[in-house]
Specification:
The chain is of the alpha/beta class and about 425 residues long. It folds into two domains: about 280 residues, Aspartate Aminotransferase, domain 2, CATH 3.40.640; about 130 residues, Aspartate Aminotransferase, domain 1 (Alpha-Beta Complex). The chain is built from 17 helices and twelve strands. A seven-stranded mixed beta sheet has the order 1-7-6-5-4-2-3, sandwiched between helices. It is globular, with a radius of gyration of 22 Å. The structure holds pyridoxal-5'-phosphate. Pyridoxal-5'-phosphate binds next to helix 4 and helix 5.
Length: about 425
């Protein structure tokens, strides 16, 4: 099936007489006929038993997202941060390290550089555009993962997933790709060699700014038996000696994430949240097309204004990522960044003068919104980290919504006139 069809039909296939819309199974528990049956679930958890780590409504959405990405399985989480965290902790323990591209979401930088460090996991950041040789230097004996973002939030760097996957595989580790801004409609990282995909579903997937969520998707392609991942190939004492590669084959990663980490951390979404996420997913392909179209026009408008110092959008020929984006993406998505002449003061003046677009701590909203990363989401970063993450202190992140694009541009024009 193609994306539009998957979005409407995958995951939940009602049988004769069953509801047409995905039912919300609002229940913590599931009833069984015998203690014997429940005992068996603890040996081989193949049915729903407790909604801290599995629920039928969430399960349907997991199957839909796995189908969209072309993976073997998915695990929904209560936020994008939880997805990034669990995707890494499923591979790294204290004493291990991971490599990450530097131009990634600010929250992920905090998680990797500060919080994981407290747990004894070191993250080495690399410039995604450096040569394979240069990037390879960051990999060590204890490196267990390579992390990147398809289109970086907010730097909008497009990463060459095929190149990064080659490097990861040379060092026998999986490539984890945060595909939030592209969504599986604009890019399918597994086709380019990535092994694991994560998303903040709070953004385009939910699409209506209703609730936070995340997801981890497993391609099923990575060889966990290459000697670097004993947690996958040796018995798990916390699970009656289950050996994930032996019992679950190509689903070892995603089942380990659920049965070990989700069981212990419990960052699972509620059924009602999954229902809302599913509504967003049903229209994702239609919405994404319009986001790309609107953002292209807004980016071109900014580029034509003499009050703007620079505009960054992978869909503009002036972007250093234009050619790579054309090759790798089916559209440049809905976020544009710009730097106004006159520095931070004019940036603030422009943003506060907008009437339609709102100032908010969100991105990829259905409504147009703006944010000044250096004083908000990336406030905790040093100037050095800001530059590495591709962020000019005067930069504005302009998240183009689904309003009529002429109205969005008129709003920009009236506010620019006062700057
Ligand atoms: C927002 C975002 C996250 C974090 O997701 P939450 O749902 O806010 O926890 C991770 N990665 C990217 C690219 C994001 O934009």
């Amino acid at each position: 099936m193609r994306d539009e069809t998957i979005c409407l039909h995958a995951g939940y296939e009602p049988k004769n007489g069953e509801p047409g819309a995905l039912p919300i199974v609002q229940s913590t528990t599931y009833k069984f006929d015998s203690t014997e049956h429940i005992g068996q679930l603890f040996d081989m958890p193949m049915e729903f038993m407790y909604s801290r780590f599995a629920n039928p409504t969430v399960d349907a959405v997991e199957k839909k997202i796995a189908a969209l990405e072309g993976g073997v399985g998915a695990l929904c989480t209560s936020s994008g941060q939880a997805a990034s965290l669990i995707s890494v902790l499923n591979l790294c323990s204290a004493g291990d390290s991971l490599v990450s591209t530097a131009a990634i979401y600010g929250g992920t930088i905090n998680l990797f550089a500060v919080t994981l460090k407290r747990f004894g996991i070191e993250c080495v950041f690399v410039d995604q555009d450096a040569s394979e040789e240069e990037i390879s230097k960051a990999f060590k004996e204890n490196t267990k993962a390579f992390f990147c973002e398809t289109i970086a939030n907010p730097a909008l760097n497009v990463c060459d997933i095929a190149k990064l996957a080659r490097i990861a595989h040379t060092h026998k580790v999986p490539l984890i790709c945060d595909n939030t801004f592209a969504t599986p409609i604009l890019c399918k990282p597994f086709d380019l060699g990535a092994d694991i995909v994560v998303h903040s579903t709070s953004k385009y997937m939910d699409g209506h700014a209703l609730q936070c969520g995340g997801v981890i998707v497993d391609s099923g392609h990575f060889n966990w038996k290459n000697g670097k991942f004993p947690d996958f190939t040796e018995p798990d004492e916390s699970y009656h000696g289950v050996t994930y590669t032996k019992e679950f084959g190509d689903m070892a990663y995603i089942i380990k994430a659920r049965m070990q980490l989700m069981r212990d951390f419990g960052a699972y979404p509620a059924a009602n949240s999954a229902f809302l996420l599913n509504l967003g997913l049903e229209t994702l392909p239609v919405r994404i097309k319009q986001y790309c179209e609107n953002a292209q026009k807004v980016a071109e408008y900014f580029e034509s204004s003499d009050k703007i110092e620079s505009v960054n959008y992978p869909g503009l020929p002036s972007s250093p990522y234009y050619e790579l984006g054309k090759k790798m993406l089916r559209g440049a998505s809905g976020v544009v960044t710009l730097v106004i002449k006159g520095g931070k003061a004019n940036a603030v003046k422009f943003m506060d003068g907008l009437k339609l677009a709102s100032n908010e701590v969100h991105v990829a909203d259905i409504r147009t919104c703006v944010l000044h990363p250096a004083s908000a989401t990336h406030r905790q970063l040093t100037d050095e980290q800001l530059v590495a993450a591709g962020i000019n202190p005067g930069m504005i992140r302009f998240s183009v919504g689904l309003e009529n694009v002429e109205d969005i541009i008129e709003d920009i024009a009236q506010s620019l006139a006062n700057v």
